[in-house]
Amino acid sequence: LPTPPARLPYVPHVPPTALLGKITATTFALERPRCVFDDHADASDAVWLAVAFANASATFRNPRSRADVPPYKELPTARFYMTLETAAAAYSCSALSPPVLRVGGDTACRDQGRQDPCNGPLPSPGPYRVKFLLMGCRGPKAETRWSEPILLRRAVSPGTIAPVPTRRGSDVVVISSILASLGAVLATAVLGALGAKVWGFLRHQDFGTDAFTHRSFRTHHIPPVLPQPPPPGCGCGPPGLC
Amino acid sequence: MAKSDDCVHILQGLLVFGNVVIGMCGIALTAECIYFVSNSHGLYPLLKAAENDIDAAAWIGIFVGLALFALSILGIVGVIKASRTLLLVYIILMLITFAFEMASCITAATHRDSLTPSVFLKQMLERYQKSETANNSDNEITKTWDELMLQNHCCGVLGPSDWQEYTSAFRLTHNDADYPWPRKCCVLDAQGLPVNLDGCKLGVSGYYNSNGCYDAISGPVNTHAWGVAWFGFAILCWTFCVLLGTMFYWSGIEY
């Protein structure tokens, strides 16, 4: 009987760094495990990633050999699959590889239906649990723990966006109210002047004159009354005495 | 009486000065509104699709400015000649211009207020890269957004997460795994190709544009709206005083 695979204490997890695309609607990223498999791995071994729906992770059984690996296209029925077959050397301490693995980033293998391990996009938001499995020639040699459930993003329809502002800005209120009051004052002044004019016209109608002048800025040019010239003959003395 | 004459002269002087200021402000308003109408920073398709009439306020402003200039000359002539008819015509036409400028200011302020980020977000999600039943306006919007994102090194309205949080017309034709956000959101090299496509898809800083384009949109729109609204408001306050003074002067002129 083959020996059961060693249980490593490593827990796969989403990288803690701030990456905007670490979880999208159909993909997610995992931190690459370093130095985890060095004690158990040979040069010819491969590390696989097992992905299962969170409620199906308990029913996952490690495959006996490479031929038994559940493929990507059976994920909807089998509820798990394995992908990301990589040489164990890529996970060693001295490997110079990117610190992040992207699960679900290969759309070509999904569309072309190749039989190779396919890292295709995930069909639903999940949640999913993953674990790494070190597979040798004679079967699984080591496995990590299952990760915490990873829930993918769910997008909502843009119809939920309400474009109308809930409150008017204060600028609009200030401008509108002040301008409205200025306009009202002007209108009142004009109407008041017109009304007073009509009122005065009606009041003085029987006199027949238009006497609306409460202050005149221009006086008519009335020639001043000149004193009467003295009658000829008087040329001296106080006026009136000749 | 000498004192009354002095008061009259002072009032005339003030009114002439007031009208000179109105004339100059009218020219300035016309020039400013012509600048805004002709220089909308390529955002016009977005505003038109949002059924926003912020341009209407500027168009009214052009004609109001010219009217103010013409009426100020009329006012100066009327005040100096103390002619009741001229001043009556001046007052009535000024009131009409006042009403139009009031409408322009309030329109500019209200429409500016209604341009929230949500308006642009909804429009972008529903129409950017819309392929089926796309009409001319949708293609204009796509081109405008592409140029906006390219020139301002920005992505989406609030950020690239707009494309993740909401479904969109873009999402219907571009799958999420290959295009978490449009390619224009990636940092591009001289040939227009992403510098690091995987880094861009993952959201590694330095390979994608993380800030939203709303600031690049609202900046010019704000300047435009407040330039029309607040400057018009200032002119109207000054015109109000001059009009009151003119009415007072007119009511005291004898036939």
TrEMBL record, chain A:
InterPro entries: Uroplakin-3. GO terms for cellular component: membrane. The keyword Phosphoprotein does not apply. The keyword Transmembrane helix applies. The chain crosses the membrane at residues 172-194. Keywords: Membrane, Transmembrane, Transmembrane helix. This is UPK3B protein. It comes from Erpornis zantholeuca.
Automatic annotation (TrEMBL), chain B:
The chain crosses the membrane at residues 12-37, 57-80, 87-109, 228-250. The keyword Lipid biosynthesis does not apply. It is a multi-pass membrane protein. Keywords: Membrane, Transmembrane, Transmembrane helix. It comes from the Eukaryota. Belongs to the tetraspanin (TM4SF) family. The gene is Upk1b. Heterodimer with uroplakin-3A (UPK3A) or uroplakin-3B (UPK3B). It holds the Pfam family Tetraspanin. It comes from Erpornis zantholeuca. This is Tetraspanin. Gene3D superfamilies: Tetraspanin.
